[in-house]
Amino acid sequence: MALNKRKIGSTGLQRRVRPRREDDWEMNSADNQSSSSDDDEIEERSSRRPNPGDDDSEEDDEDDSEAESGSNEDSEDDDNEEPAAPKVDLSSISFGALAKAQASLPPSKRRSKSAPTPADDDDDDDDRQPLPRQSSSRKDDPKPKRSSKHAPQEQSSKRPVRRGRDFVPDDTQPRRQQYRDPRFDPLVGRLDEEKAHKNYAFLDEYRDKEMADLRVQIKKTKNLTEKERLKRELLSMESKKKSRVRKEEEQNLLKEHRKREKDLVAQGKTPFYLKKSEQKKQLLTERYASMSKGQVDRAIERKRKKYAGKEKKEMDYLQRRSRS
């Protein structure tokens, strides 16, 4: 009696199973139940088959051995392949479970998901093209238009309007920025020139040193243009110094005159106020008194040439006017 040799299929305990996480066990429990039910059905079908003769039994044994080897290979392939991810409703999963799943992933997979591949970078670089450069000049901006010629002109809010704007702007001359010194502002109070001159007397010493340095530079420089520039600068500083000296002389003259008048008023006399012409005469007499004879002659000659030039200009003007 030929025995029906049948090899019992591998049970769930004998199968090679990879360790899984708790989340994977919960998600794949349904798949394991379905696979176990399929194995039971295969065993029941094999037990219900009729027993043939010896020749047939040998052939069946060979077929069974081949089938078992094939099933073993299939099981190994199934073990090597990862189980297909089931379709899960993401709305039913809590955020805590998602956070745990993300934390359980290795860092390499996280980087692969977040970081783009070099091929994608190349495609992005190919797609990127340099944008046309836009000029931010005000010339390209269109001027605001009025609805009619009687309507007021619309001012742009991007450029603030100055508070001290001119109603008739003069674009021919460039605007110069006016600086303001609050120390000499009339709103602060009346300026005491004598006191200010005493407080800033050290500036005169600085100016004298600068003039001495300019004279030395004029002697050393060989460049004609640079020498002319230094000479003009020195001449302007000397003229400013002369004007300051004359102003001081006028102030000293008025100061002495007021002092004398106060003494006369104290004696019971009426005060006498100097006119501009009298002030000039007294200034000239005091100035010539401090000069030598040659300096006085040169000063008088300069004055004579100055007045002669003025008279000549006036005569030329009168002659042109009479001809016309």
TrEMBL record:
<comment type="function">
    <text>Component of the 90S pre-ribosome involved in the maturation of rRNAs. Required for early cleavages of the pre-RNAs in the 40S ribosomal subunit maturation pathway.</text>
</comment>
<feature type="compositionally biased region" description="Basic and acidic residues">
    <location>
        <begin position="163"/>
        <end position="190"/>
    </location>
</feature>
<dbReference type="GO" id="GO:0000462">
    <property type="term" value="P:maturation of SSU-rRNA from tricistronic rRNA transcript (SSU-rRNA, 5.8S rRNA, LSU-rRNA)"/>
</dbReference>
<feature type="region of interest" description="Disordered">
    <location>
        <begin position="238"/>
        <end position="264"/>
    </location>
</feature>
<feature type="region of interest" description="Disordered">
    <location>
        <begin position="291"/>
        <end position="324"/>
    </location>
</feature>
<feature type="compositionally biased region" description="Basic and acidic residues">
    <location>
        <begin position="308"/>
        <end position="324"/>
    </location>
</feature>
<feature type="compositionally biased region" description="Basic and acidic residues">
    <location>
        <begin position="238"/>
        <end position="255"/>
    </location>
</feature>
<dbReference type="GO" id="GO:0030686">
    <property type="term" value="C:90S preribosome"/>
</dbReference>
<dbReference type="Pfam" id="PF06102">
    <property type="entry name" value="RRP36"/>
</dbReference>
<keyword id="KW-0698">rRNA processing</keyword>
<protein>
    <recommendedName>
        <fullName>rRNA biogenesis protein RRP36</fullName>
    </recommendedName>
</protein>
<comment type="similarity">
    <text>Belongs to the RRP36 family.</text>
</comment>
<dbReference type="GO" id="GO:0005730">
    <property type="term" value="C:nucleolus"/>
</dbReference>
<dbReference type="InterPro" id="IPR009292">
    <property type="entry name" value="RRP36"/>
</dbReference>
<keyword id="KW-0690">Ribosome biogenesis</keyword>
<keyword id="KW-0687">Ribonucleoprotein</keyword>
<keyword id="KW-0175">Coiled coil</keyword>
<feature type="region of interest" description="Disordered">
    <location>
        <begin position="1"/>
        <end position="190"/>
    </location>
</feature>
<feature type="compositionally biased region" description="Acidic residues">
    <location>
        <begin position="53"/>
        <end position="82"/>
    </location>
</feature>
<keyword id="KW-0539">Nucleus</keyword>
<comment type="subunit">
    <text>Associates with 90S and pre-40S pre-ribosomal particles.</text>
</comment>
